[in-house]
Amino acid sequence: MNAAELPVKNVVLYKHGVGYFERAGELSAGESARLDFKEADMNDVLKSLTVEVKGGAGVSALRYDSSEPLDRKLLQYPLKLGDRQPISTLLDQLKGARLALTMGTQTVEGVIVSARVSKPSEQTPEQELIVLLTDAGELRTLNLTAASALRLTDPKLQLQLKEYLSTLTQARANDKRSVYIDSTDSGRRQIAASYMIPTPVWKSSYRLIFPVTGDALLEGWAIVDNTTGEDWTNIRLALVSGRPISFISQLYEPRFVDRPVAELPEERASAPVVHGGVIGGIAGGAPMAMAAPPPPPAPMRAMRKAAPALADALIKEETRERAESTVAQTAEGRELGELFEYRFATAVTVRKNESAMLPFLQQKLASRKLLIYTDSSSQHPLNAAELTNSSGKTLDGGPITVYDSGTYAGEALFETVKTGDKRLISYGIDIGTRITTRFDSSAGVIREASYRRGVLSTRSSVKETKTYSIRNVDAKPKTLIIEHPARPDYKLLNQKPLETTAKAWRFEVKLAPSASETFAVEEERLLSQSYSAMNLTPDFIASLVSATGIPAPAKRGLQQILDKKREIVQVDGDLRRTDQEIQETAQDQNRIRENMTSLSRVAGQQEQAQKYAAQLAAQEAKLAALRDRQAELRRKKAALEAELNAMEF
Question: Is the pTM of this model over 0.70?
């Protein structure tokens, strides 16, 4: 059956690696349409292909070249060839096959028994050996390296080897796959097919031209690459800014499922059955109903239903605007939901394996030139421009080459800018302005203090000031934007930013000609801390009481805690001294007892022993009084600590 090729009519390129293609043409009676694709593109084609027929009965079938995985194709052959595999390994897989070897002028024929690689010693070279069973019944070991030719005598096996090698060759060489669109219509008809395939992303490049007076002119160019392998001749081209979700689904390669092996009960021996005990429920009750299987997935919706407006808009003619520029603007923009489309009003031609650079924007933008300072390690700010997107179009992100008064001024980058939004771009270093910075930090000032359940909580503030000293060397006024880092937990005290970004505050400073200026940014950070009353010392509490900035109620509460803490410290000191005195008295008693034990062994020492006994009795009475005092001090300390923990403010 004849198959006609459909030429490309419309192309839409996106920023996420795919392109939308529409082919259209006329088919004669009984003729099919053929679409050729790279094998790697087939998954996207099968996911997105839609067909529309006008003037006929419609499409009867879609068919395409299938692709069985190479490893499954090779499974049907009784051999396997690996990378750099010796011939002996191949012959060893063919045990039992007949082989004829030409050894010089002699031909040896027999059945393959085995084949292997042999290396008897380090000094001898490696050999490939084969063992054949000859027709005479002899087992002969032959050196394959000495054979000038070998042949499989079985025609079927020889053919399988040829087919195996042919399959490998086809897998490497055949990269094209064809999709055929068949129809049962007997008359002529118009047919259109659309699909998505992987394509290079289109790129944008800009020129920003500052005249001597007036608004800047932004000129945009689109860089398009044709890697499809065929010419795009007089096509309708559109470029879409945005990144819709796209993914690869494996639809082209056949999918196989490993099935379980099942046997009838009578085909295997019976085994003893071990029945488990009842854990819950009623024994012998109704069986639990099984959950219904999940519903099958909904059929894939046709791509045509998702993008009819896009397809119709590509065919529909519209007038084009022309900006005042030496380069004609050939693209018009419009919103497509969250995306933005640039559509070229005139036909475009891009040869295969070539790229094109097409103007898609000529627009004057509201702008102002200024300086921007972001890097504290440099003493010079950057030449910059503030651009407001007043074009009514989304500006796709890309590089910008800046020209100022007819002279190259530098280069910049900017991200995609929606209409009405604005961006700062920097494109050079201004050596006519110098900036230095100084950093000052003040001691922490307590702003709040509270005490509950034995825990003292404070909130203190630390003030930091960064002063920018600016010198304008040039004899002309300038506007400077300072990007001051916005740090978490810090708030501004003396300045209000012009703008705020995710990472910085922007301040605007007007610089007079040949003048100096200072700009200070004061920030405050609040720190929260908690202390256990048991770990607080009177000196630390006294420092809090005398701190500046602390509220009067908190100061009174801290003074009460300080007084109570001093009482506890005094009692604690008395308790330590009492404990030490008890320890010293007990040690003295032990010394007296040791002396009395020594005197008991010496005659005539009764009088001295009685003196020691009197001292021991006196110390025992003292020790009892000390222990009573120790207990009283402990009770007093516990009561004071309880009072301290019960205090609140």
Answer: no
